[in-house]
């Protein structure tokens, strides 16, 4: 670039940056900014990466993105971006973008052992349909599966849910959000009877305290962390606490760092609850008016297979714990049992892990009684080089912060809580602490579950793309919810399958044991991100399964696929996301996708043309289905009822489910487009606005039912930067359950109006003692949950902890961020962070190449003892972005038995020199 | 070539020192300063994204820097020529 142009461009960039953040500049500089941008078209968008949901502005010229900037009008990020914001414009332009369907072929025909060969879309869909029908005819609706995403657009997730549940009558659809958010979701449902947080990000500017629990916010949620740091700098009372298993970047900005052992967060939260009671700090009026106390079973297993038939030999000892567990000494104490006795407990509640019953306050008090400072400090202290007294002082300081009635407090958490064999429990426990104190649902007092993906909330949760869910917090196994859904979707009664389908880990296990033989993966990389990967790679490549992967880049999942469908990315399509604070945000298509790449939505709709109603709405076998009104093991033939409703057997699923008269009423072109294109509509060859029609059809589920979205067009207004639902009478709801802010509160100032599981039997800590159910509408639950040890811990052979997670520069499995080649070079291989003394003890030093081995596999990596993550003795950390250091080959696929979310944070490993 | 507009915030008393330190960094130019609030706008030029990220880390590490985040990015590149099958897929 010539020097003068570059100098001019820099002046323009500087001036535009200053304007974005509100720094006054000279008239000359303003002119430079204007001239730099004069041929660019700016439009609003949303960052495609984490769950914070930063607003970005996108500039395009000649069908290409030329600039992006943090949106100064976005209330989430106020003009700032983190490094990942940078990638939004970059990720579209990687050299190895997939631009044509690719199928494994030999001699012009599909061959599982063949080489990837470019094919047309027709060839791709033809083979996909042949393989689908083979699996579906043989195994029925449970023989196929879809692995979706918390990065699905709202409309994509909705269309796939409708195709699977209403069309294929299969509940085997689950998003990668299962492994990110499911524990948070399960706890929201159990505690409040409705999903998603009471508060929002603005709590940061109202609070006096931020406590991060198992959340390295400085790396994983930097823009939000910046707001915390700003508050700390501007508000002298503000204190920040980092509770973590190893020192990380979040410690830098914290007043108090508490390093704990894995899984002891459950004990620490019981210590806080006990302290609150002992110090007489319970907000009695709040608890009496708005809460009940609950307990549940503790013999719930670890979400593993109950059989070791498929286990590697080395896995079998841990696998056996799914059936029977001998309690550790600390577990016995935590359950109020005699620690000198051996307690061997059959795991009888693995299938009913989430059940619970009412108990009294005295039961709760008895439950937390063992969690004294002495017991918890000994159990939880994570850094062997810290003194017990110093650690105790920290726990007391933490209790001081929580228990102070004058102090406002926000608790933040993410994967440390969620990816946890007791993930639902620990989520419930943080609510217990906040509820005991009444520190909830008002500005500055907020237990807040952060999310990891841009639409984990907006799509995976709100649309209900999980194997048990329907839109607007409804579920498949409640008859009334199915009725509402069948009526909204205009389906014959009993079309929907009442038996929950396979969650993401189970879809993988089903591929391995042959109960599923066809899957479609969209907007995620499960063959890299699901734990215990060696099993699933083999199931995909060496067994007779057909794997379809829609992807933008050659991810591991694309490489193990039989058919790859190239996709349009983020700003190459119309779409909407929902962030962690219930904010729904949208964008227009900005640039065309490359080559033959097409949106996931187009792919879903085109594939739905390949099947007719006669093929799916006939009688279907569902193994294990037992539900009132259904013949055992069967879904009924609904075709004759359908014909009475005007459907014809030869109608395609596209005609029946998507191209409905109501949807066709949304005409394309539409003035809201302001001249922007729509490749999905164009390639479907239709004149209706697919994204708008599906958004409005979906929104009907939530309106009037606590989940109101605004009309589609409102989100596109120039002065709107997303709206936090419920949006009632044009107004968003910043704080839920509080009458000052939430129009759904009808009784009193605070009302936890979520309706799920608000009628229970009563009992004590060990079980129910009555049959009679009590209703408690409007109340939230305070759960007692005991400490539980991890399913596997280091021993004489596998002698180190391994925790996995995310880094600032790379996101998730790196499918997108690794495509920016220079960045890939900067961090070419994930390193294993470990303690220097642990390395020395093994005759190793920083930068040595080592083998890392677990019961499930081994990989090669380089160790680092002076990185930004500083594990204590006995502990190690590795990021999971790097497919060449395939850490999920090591990780255990145990899950929280309630949420079915995997625990990526606690695997026992050993390391030795290569 | 990558150009980024970065907002740097330092305590108002340290604006002059920080401005000097920033201007010494390779590829970094200070363009706007608001002494009353300690806010500084710099433009960072780098050949690669890697260079951009490294430079941002250097800025964050300067004494007194409370905040340094990217605000604005300009991409001045031609989209790459692509193969029908990316090289690494041909081997799978």
Automatic annotation (TrEMBL), chain A:
Q: Which UniProt keywords apply?
A: 4Fe-4S, Electron transport, Iron, Iron-sulfur, Metal-binding, Molybdenum, Nitrate assimilation, Oxidoreductase, Periplasm, Signal, Transport
Q: Does the keyword Metal-binding apply?
A: yes
Reaction(s) this enzyme catalyzes, per UniProt: 2 Fe(II)-[cytochrome] + nitrate + 2 H(+) = 2 Fe(III)-[cytochrome] + nitrite + H2O
E.C. code: 1.9.6.1
One GO MF term attached to the UniProt entry: molybdenum ion binding
Going by the record, the broad EC class of this enzyme is oxidoreductase
State where substrate binds.
Answer: 880
Q: Where in the cell is it found?
A: Periplasm
HAMAP family xrefs: Nitrate_reduct_NapA (MF_01630)
Oligomeric form and interacting partners: Component of the periplasmic nitrate reductase NapAB complex composed of NapA and NapB.
- What is the protein name for this chain? Periplasmic nitrate reductase
Primary gene name: napA
Automatic annotation (TrEMBL), chain B:
Please provide one cellular component term from the Gene Ontology annotations of this protein.
Answer: cytoplasm
| Keyword Chaperone listed | yes
Output the Gene Ontology terms for molecular function: signal sequence binding
Cytoplasm among the record's keywords?
yes
Q: Where in the cell is it found?
A: Cytoplasm
Query: Would you kindly state one Gene Ontology biological process term found in this protein's UniProt entry?
Result: negative regulation of protein transport
User: Which keywords annotate this record?
Assistant: Chaperone, Cytoplasm
Q: Report the principal subcellular site.
A: cytoplasm
Q: InterPro entries, alphabetically?
A: Chaperone_NapD_NO3_reduct (IPR005623)
Q: Which Pfam families does the entry mention?
A: NapD (PF03927)
Supply the Gene3D superfamilies for this chain: 3.30.70.920
Its subunit composition reads: Interacts with the cytoplasmic NapA precursor.
Q: What does this protein do?
A: Chaperone for NapA, the catalytic subunit of the periplasmic nitrate reductase. It binds directly and specifically to the twin-arginine signal peptide of NapA, preventing premature interaction with the Tat translocase and premature export.
The family assignment reads: Belongs to the NapD family.
Q: What is this protein called?
A: Chaperone NapD
| Species assigned in the record | Thiocapsa marina 5811
């Amino acid at each position: 670039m010539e020097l003068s142009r570059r100098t001019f461009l820099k002046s323009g960039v500087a001036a535009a940056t200053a304007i974005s953040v509100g720094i006054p500049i000279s008239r000359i500089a303003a002119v430079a900014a204007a001239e730099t941008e004069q041929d660019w078209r700016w439009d609003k968008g949303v960052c495609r990466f984490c769950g914070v949901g930063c607003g970005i502005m996108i500039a395009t010229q000649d069908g290409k993105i030329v600039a992006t900037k943090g949106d100064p009008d976005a209330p989430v990020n106020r003009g700032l971006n983190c490094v990942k914001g940078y990638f939004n414009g970059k990720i579209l332009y990687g050299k190895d973008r997939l631009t044509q369907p690719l199928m494994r072929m030999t001699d012009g025909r599909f061959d599982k052992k063949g080489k990837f060969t470019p094919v047309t879309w027709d060839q791709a869909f033809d083979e996909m349909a042949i393989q689908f029908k083979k699996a579906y005819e043989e195994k029925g609706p449970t023989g196929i599966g879809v692995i979706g995403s918390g990065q699905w657009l709202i409309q994509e997730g909705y269309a796939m849910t409708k195709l699977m549940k209403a069309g294929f009558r299969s509940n085997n659809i689950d998003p990668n959000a299962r492994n990110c958010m499911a524990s948070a979701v399960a706890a929201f449902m159990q505690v409040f009877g409705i999903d998603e947080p009471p508060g929002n990000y603005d709590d940061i500017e109202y609070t006096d305290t931020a406590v991060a629990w198992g959340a390295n916010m400085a790396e994983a949620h930097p823009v939000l962390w910046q707001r915390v740091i700003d508050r700390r700098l501007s508000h002298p009372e503000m204190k920040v606490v980092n509770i973590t298993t190893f020192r990380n970047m979040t410690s830098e900005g914290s007043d108090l760092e508490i390093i704990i052992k894995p899984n002891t967060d459950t004990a620490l939260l019981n210590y806080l609850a006990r302290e609150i009671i002992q110090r007489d700090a319970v907000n009695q009026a709040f608890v009496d008016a708005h809460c009940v106390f609950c307990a549940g079973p503790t013999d719930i297993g670890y979400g593993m297979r109950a059989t070791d038939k498929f286990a590697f030999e080395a896995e079998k000892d841990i696998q056996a714990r799914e059936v029977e567990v001998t309690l550790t000494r600390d577990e016995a104490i935590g359950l109020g049992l005699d620690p000198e006795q051996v307690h061997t407990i059959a795991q009888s509640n693995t299938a009913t892990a989430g059940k619970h019953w009412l108990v009294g306050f005295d039961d709760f008090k008895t439950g937390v009684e063992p969690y004294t400072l002495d017991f918890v400090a000994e159990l939880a202290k994570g850094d062997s080089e810290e003194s017990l007294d110093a650690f105790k002082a920290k726990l007391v300081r933490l209790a001081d912060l929580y228990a102070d009635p004058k102090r406002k407090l926000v608790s933040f958490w993410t994967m440390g809580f969620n990816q946890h064999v007791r993930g639902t429990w620990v989520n419930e426990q943080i609510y217990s602490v906040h509820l005991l104190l009444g520190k909830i649902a008002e500005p500055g007092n907020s237990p807040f579950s952060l999310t990891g993906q841009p639409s984990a909330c907006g799509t995976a949760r709100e649309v209900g793309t999980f194997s048990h869910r329907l839109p607007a917090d409804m579920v498949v196994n409640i008859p009334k919810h199915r009725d509402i859904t069948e009526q909204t979707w205009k389906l014959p009664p009993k079309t929907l399958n009442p038996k929950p389908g396979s969650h993401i880990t189970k879809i993988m296990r089903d591929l391995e044991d042959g109960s599923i033989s066809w899957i479609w993966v969209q907007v995620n990389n499960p063959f890299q991100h699901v734990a215990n990967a060696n099993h699933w790679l083999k199931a995909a490549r060496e067994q007779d399964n057909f794997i379809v992967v829609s992807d933008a880049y050659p991810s591991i999942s694309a490489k193990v696929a039989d058919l790859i469908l190239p996709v349009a990315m983020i700003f190459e399509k119309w779409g909407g996301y929902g962030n962690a604070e219930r904010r729904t945000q949208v964008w227009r298509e900005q640039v065309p996708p490359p080559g033959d790449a097409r949106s996931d939505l187009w792919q879903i709709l085109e594939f739905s043309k390949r099947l007719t109603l006669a093929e799916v709405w006939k009688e279907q076998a569902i193994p294990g289905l037992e539900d009132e009104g259904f013949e055992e093991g069967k879904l009924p033939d609904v075709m004759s009822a359908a014909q009475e409703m005007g459907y014809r057997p030869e109608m395609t699923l596209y005609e029946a489910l998507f191209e409905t008269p109501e949807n066709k009423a949304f005409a394309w072109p539409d003035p809201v487009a302001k001249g922007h294109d729509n490749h999905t509509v164009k390639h479907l060859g239709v004149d209706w606005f697919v994204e708008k029609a599906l958004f409005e059809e979906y929104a009907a589920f939530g309106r009037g039912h606590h989940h109101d979205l605004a009309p589609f067009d409102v989100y596109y207004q120039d002065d709107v930067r997303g709206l936090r639902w419920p949006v009632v009478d044009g107004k968003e709801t910043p704080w839920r359950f509080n009458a000052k802010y939430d129009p759904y509160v009808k009784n009193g100032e605070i009302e936890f109006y979520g309706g799920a599981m608000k009628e229970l039997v009563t009992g004590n800590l060990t079980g129910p003692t009555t049959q009679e159910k009590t209703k408690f509408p409007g109340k939230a639950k305070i759960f007692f949950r005991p400490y539980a040890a991890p399913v596997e811990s280091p021993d004489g052979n596998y002698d180190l902890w391994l925790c996995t997670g995310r880094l600032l520069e790379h996101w998730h499995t790196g499918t997108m961020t690794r495509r920016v080649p220079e960045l890939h070079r900067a961090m070419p291989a994930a390193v294993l962070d470990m303690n220097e003394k642990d390395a020395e003890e093994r005759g190793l030093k920083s930068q040595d190449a080592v083998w890392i081995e677990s019961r499930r596999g081994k990989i090669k990596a380089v160790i680092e003892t002076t990185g930004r993550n500083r594990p204590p003795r006995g502990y190690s950390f590795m990021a999971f972005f790097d497919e060449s250091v395939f850490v999920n080959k090591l990780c255990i696929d145990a899950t929280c038995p309630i949420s079915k979310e995997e625990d990526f944070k606690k695997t026992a490993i050993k390391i030795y020199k290569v | 070539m990558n150009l980024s507009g970065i907002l740097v915030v330092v305590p108002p008393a340290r604006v002059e020192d920080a401005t000097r330190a920033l201007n010494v960094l390779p590829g970094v130019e200070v363009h706007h300063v608001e002494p009353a609030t300690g806010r500084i706008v710099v433009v960072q030029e780098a050949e690669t994204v890697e260079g951009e990220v490294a430079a941002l880390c250097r800025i964050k590490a300067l004494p007194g820097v409370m905040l340094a985040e990217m605000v604005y990015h300009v991409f001045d590149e031609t989209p790459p020529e692509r193969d029908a099958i990316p090289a690494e897929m041909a081997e799978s």
